[in-house]
Write a structure and sequence with these properties.
11 helices; 18 strands; Rossmann fold; 2 domains
Length: 434
Amino acid sequence: MLISFAVTNFRSISTRMEMTTLKTGLKGLESNYFKSHSKKSLLKSAVIYGPNASGKTGFLTALNALNFLVLKSASFKADEDMGAYEPHLLDKHYASLPVTFELSFVNQLQYDYIVSFNEHQVVQEELYYYPANSRSLLFARQAGKDIKFGDYYKGPKKALEKLLMPNQLFLSKAVENNADDILLKAFRFFTLGLRVFPMIEAYHEHNLTMLYAKRLAEDKDKKFRDRFNAMICALDTGISSVTVEEVDWNDFKFPGNMPEDVKKQFQEDYKYDVRTQHMVFENKERVGFDSFDMRQESAGTKSLFVMGGIILDALATGRVLVVDEFEKNLHPNITGFLIQLFHNPAINKKNAQLIFATHDISQLSNDRFRRDQVWFSQKDEYGSTELIRCSDIPGIRLSAPLDKWYATGRLGGTPIINDVDFLIEMQGDDETES
């Protein structure tokens, strides 16, 4: 469960920007929040609105960057770049400073995790947890100094410190070397409790389609398959069911010079054939069903196939799901339906959280989000991102139509289009031609 995430000096973000899912004192929409293990009331979703290039993707990508470092840095070689170092470059003051991520989360226990790094090394790394509602240090690391360990840390110390390279996170290295259970719970938040999709590109969509095709094909108890089909069929796609069959490669001719390992990888990547079933009519009477290749479906249906799988996984595990451009190729009604799955306590029984960015203003209706769930991103005059929570903006009445106010720029986070120079240039071309 995500409590808060703060970013300093990453991409378009220069000064510290923080998003929190802690519920404020606002009343209403009780189904949109829940009591966590730490007794805190946390929101089930948070949405970011803002113009293109305002920093929405950068903020969500920062979560992905931290996730990458935790999962992969233990295997970094000596002198290998950190990979995720992308400081703010529009102000020379920040261009050589460390990037800093701060994450508070719950995975049975509550943790605070701080990581600061530059291109070549970890500058600072600290992990705290709350054994009895009080913050206690597990370890604190500063570049060039010995690691300080708290009383609750029971894992290896000096031996592990000697193995640790400057570009590796201690949390990652400790888990690789039999860390104690307290650190393992923190690490498992990144492996099991968090999935980040900053942008689902075409190749991601294909990989995820194949992933969920595999899930459908190998779903022995049929629970995932039945829920997946129920979702797809409920959303007016014209599909009556989705089936998956293993591809028969016997009649497929590969190029004679294709290496065997490449051939096997290709067969693994395209192991399953996804088919959609549609009703067929004659003279307006149903005469049966026909099967279509998934590639024949619309872009929206393909996106729904992927988003449906991602969301069902998150709901089943109680995971934190982070998605940029959540509405990609989807009708606003479908987008709203998918969001409401997280707010429905009968469906979201494990309190999964959805953190996402969108341009779909229609979702900004007062019956969908509390104001402490809505955030606006925008850039200041120096090209630096600002992140503002709607509930922190003074003077907004409860009855205010947020969608209309946002569209007219009264809440910030909307693009300012200066078309004067463009129009003059276009008219100048016309005058020259005439």
